[in-house]
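Limitations

Structures in this collection are predictions, not experimental determinations, and the ligand pose is part of the prediction. Treat each record accordingly. The example that follows, with NDP as the small molecule, is included so readers can see exactly what is and is not provided: the inputs are given verbatim, and the output is the predicted complex.
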Amino acid sequence: RQGTVVITGASSGLGLATAKALAETGKWHVIMACRDFLKTERAAKSVGMAKEDYSIMHLDLASLDSVRQFVDNFQRSGRPLDVLVCNAAVYFPTAKEPTYTADGFELSVGTNHLGHFLLSRLLLVDLNKSDYPSKRLVIVGSITGNTNTLAGNVPPKANLGDMRGLAAGLNGLNTSSMIDGGEFDGAKAYKDSKVCNMLTMQEFHRRYHEDTGITFTSLYPGCIATTGLFREHISLFRTLFPPFQKYITKGYVSEEEAGTHCENFFCFRGSGATSVISITTIKLSESCSRDVAFLILLQAIASCIKT
Ligand code: NDP
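Predicted complex:
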């Protein structure tokens, strides 16, 4: 049968390129889980996706009510869930002050991590029911969260610390809006959120893979220096970053190429896996072993989200 894949943030960039690449195989029905219906419809048309190959369902990851509503709508649709791709993200490298989700969490960690965490937890039951041979839950990670890569060593570095900010609600009221309790830094908040994404997949795999057969992974798509992710950056950065990645670091990939990598990866074909970083390379701060960190992370999330 045709597989069903849900992709968050499929209205642009990597999400759109992946949706297109999967739809073109004819083997997938793509559910584009997006916050802007009209933009997504236009985007799907602009890349030539055929109407019968996709559906658009509303999802705003910056609102936990919206996440629950999306899951409810998806479950009512009667479709099976074979692959969930958590791709959407926001990045505020130049923000001087934090902004917040509908539930009052710092916006980048709230969207990239907490929204996806709740979505993944709620949809686990659907993935579990799928009879698809390679059912999987994929989160798009980033090497900027790995301190053993060059990009991960560009300050500010990701660091979850003892997660006192997350445990206190990440709301900037009682304490800081940063996971580690430090001063707000938009670039670091993004990197921290990606560490949480990768860590979550690693722990989900350890906890649930054997019983459910679901493969939990995070992948790095390469540096797609032209996407909307960098829209908040200063214009000089936006001009110089693509040629820098193309000709100096040689880490650049086009949106189309990155989408094809992901499509290969989900279908277990081709060389897409070469662009996948090992999530075991994540380094946390020295005071925090990974298991202890995950336990604290779960407790902190539990105090933030009532599932
Ligand atoms: P884009 O900005 O092009 O895409 C981000 C997508 O996320 C958009 O569709 C956006 O929707 C959506 N989104 C943002 N906020 C929300 C929300 N609250 N609810 C639902 N959807 C939301 O960036 P990319 O394609 O570059 O990024 C895709 C993924 O790739 C991200 O996880 C990013 O961290 C990762 N990545 C990207 C790299 C790169 O070089 N570009 C490198 C490494 C990882 P809308 O259209 O409405 O704004």
